[in-house]
Amino acid sequence: MSTVLEAKKRENDGYANVNQLKVAGGVPGELYGYKVENTPLAVSSREFYKVIREVGRNGVINLNLDGDKVNVILHDYQEDPIRREVIHLDFLAVDLDQEIEAAVLVEVTGEVSSDGGVLQHVLHELYVLAKPNDFPENIQVSVDNLGIGDSVTVGDIRKNVSATINHEDDETIVTVIAPQQEAEESTEEDENAEPVLISEEKEENEE
Questions:
Q1: Among 95, 114, 142, which residue terminates a domain?
Q2: Domain match, 13 and 78 both
């Protein structure tokens, strides 16, 4: 049984209205997809985080929009890069019997061999095709005993995932490089990088 998230329609999408909503602890969003009209809505920030912790990033949510219940998944979201707060949500209405595509996080497990190699995590998420209730919470990739020059590609883990991965087999998920190579690549990135702001991580919302 999917978890219920209460939502209300938004009649006015002006800046002042959205700002007032955020001050009151709400998050603006949009609903679209299977057998629904595009609808601006709002949900409680506290309740949203609680539901996502329960169902996971790709879990099915029973969205109760002013009394009308719709099966949805969190299709996309926008996050404030400084405060680490969700500032906009996109909910996709789904048919539970039809496959859809969604991004699933890659979780790296294990440790590389002790030859001084440096692990590079290339793909942090993979696009997967499955029915809404069949998405894995994450895709685990083991790096145990990988040495310098070794890598794990999509083809290496495809058979371990029950859903269809929509990537080419030769796409690299993780690879192990020599320390000197890693240092050179970091230097090049630093020379080309623009200044960025650094902030503390936002504390997890209280229940």
A1: 95
A2: yes
pTM: 0.76
Q: Domain residues for 15?
A: 3-95
Whole-angstrom distance, CA of residue 53 vs CA of residue 57:
8
pLDDT, one tens digit for every residue, the chain (207 residues): 569 999 999 876 665 566 777 767 899 999 999 999 999 999 999 999 999 999 998 999 999 999 999 999 999 999 888 888 899 999 999 999 999 999 999 999 999 987 788 999 999 999 999 999 999 999 999 999 899 999 999 999 999 999 999 999 999 999 999 987 655 565 555 555 554 333 333 444 445
Does 198 reside within a domain? no
Q: What is the 3-state secondary structure (H, E, C) of the chain?
A: CCEEEEEEECCCCCHHHHHHHHHCCEEEEEEEECCCCCEEEEEEHHHHHHHHHHHCCCCCEEEEECCEEEEEEEEEEEECCCCCCEEEEEEEECCCCCCEEEEEEEEEECCCCCCCCEEEECCCEEEEEECHHHCCCCEEEECCCCCCCCEEEHHHHHHHCCCEECCCCCCEEEEEECHHHHHHHHHHHHHHCCCCCCCCCCCCCCC
Residue 71 is part of a domain; what is its CATH number?
2.40.240.10
> Does one domain contain both 84 and 111?
no
